[in-house]
Design goal:
Distance between the termini: 89 Å
Number of helices: 26
Shape: elongated
Strand order of the largest sheet: 5-6-7-8-9
Number of strands: 9
Radius of gyration: 32 Å
Length: 588
Amino acid sequence: MELLSARGRSVWERMKASFWYEALKKKLPILVWLPRYSVKWLQMDLIAGMTVGLTVVPQALAYAEVAGLPVQYGLYSSFIGCFIYCLLGTSKDVTLGPTAIMSLLCASYIGHDPVQAVLLTFLCGFIQLVMAIMHLGFLLDFISYPVIKGFTSSAALTIGFGQVKNILGLHDIPQQFILQFYYTFRNIYETRVGDLILGLTSIALLVVLKVMKDSLAPTDEDTAVVVKVCRMVVWFFATARNAFVVVAAALVAYACELSGTKVFTLTGKTTQGLPPFKPPQFYEDTGNESLPFSEMVKDLGGGLAVIPLMGLLESLAIAKAFASQNEYRIDSNQELLAIGVTNLLGSFFSAYPVTGSFGRTAVNSQTGVCTPAGGIVTGVIVLLSLAFLMPLFYYIPKAALAAVIICAVVPMFDYKVVKTLWKVKKLDLLPFLLTFFMCFWEIQYGIVAGIILSGFMLLYKVARPKLEVSDHGVLVIVLDSGLNFPSAEYLSDTLYRQALLVSRPRSVILDCRHVSSIDYTVVNEIQDLLQQFRLNKVSLIFSGLRIVILEVLLAADLKGLEHTESVEEALQSLSEHHIVQEHDQSLC
């Protein structure tokens, strides 16, 4: 008996352990792939991690410029996501770090202030973490595709043109797009020839290397070894083209400095070493006065809504795209958790807000990464750069970084989407164009305006459901969607105009086979309609009601409610009712 009891406890304990382990695997996806990790996976992850590392370092320096922060903050923001995502991420391809769009958004709110940037990261991480815990990811569904495309296309032009000043070597150009456009052309006569030549050369080199990579044909087993090696060399330099161009430009600038000629505008002095581990400041000493936490939050304003949402949206869109491409599934809520924790912890390493990077994720996928462990290699490369290479970043020309940014954001401008929207649904051009143009004024206004317009368009469809009216001796009205309170008055008005406010009132059959939802406001309106139809001595019959809708109507105890399973049955019922009426009249 004791033996059976012990066995029972053992089975129960194993079941409990299994349950907790399965629950833990959902929150720590590393436990899913780590037990199956192999030497082959390690080789592929090392190659992918090193390749992405060579991409992320120059991009991080460049994106910090877009955010209006010292260049080291780009690297501060690039390593923590690599390690956190390895533990919590569900996509093997996604890499978290600074991006062009996130940098542009941050620049709109932080005013070149690193303290504000770090606090924004902390608050963004906290908001994203709360959204993940409360499963609020569905809020992102209210940002429509035309709004996203309008924002990204506008952001591409804003970011790209914002770097023209560095290509030309101009100074003291305002951040706001319209003023930036005006002052760039106003001060164009101050262009530094050295910066212009280097910038254009860097852009040309980046474009050529990208074309070379895109034109590489896949290697066959019969291909000669020499050809394979040459293709591999071309592929490597083309993939790491950002690092190659930045290093080459820095060497040219260093040579010019040694010769005593200052031809280029350089990045200048940067802080050396790893960022200190410390909590973000919840106050700021500006010298004259101390800025309290409440004032700092007030200065961030709408950024506390826009940046967390856009960060989640960008990262999720990338994760879903590559999951579909490479035939695996992601957990959207776990992705929210990963990016929230990354930003929250990143604020302790002086990072500014990060999200998934499409460009670096594409590189990661194309180099054959097998697990998120490739991010560890990328993170180590960033840390080594911070520890040992920061003094060398002094000689990186701003024109070279501007070239990297311009070439990175050009593909974001999707001019073909206008043609697609025109063909598919012309009305969707309205939120696209509104978002696109308003983002040139203020990004947050553009996004909010696009969301509001999309929301109005959606609500209009709810408030004005499509009604197909046909005449079968009686009116048959087909409803094509749910019946909710915004549509109650519209349905009532339609029935009054078509059936009751005519010289001879007519019976109506409401075909409800497409109706999947109903609320109390509609039920109350139906009660009034049934009464009006009775007063006019005609019928209102509901056909094809789903069980859940019928249960609601029956629970409301509507007087005179008639329902049938089909329109044909309703027509037959009305026909029999009409015959009975005629018979009664003849007897009278």
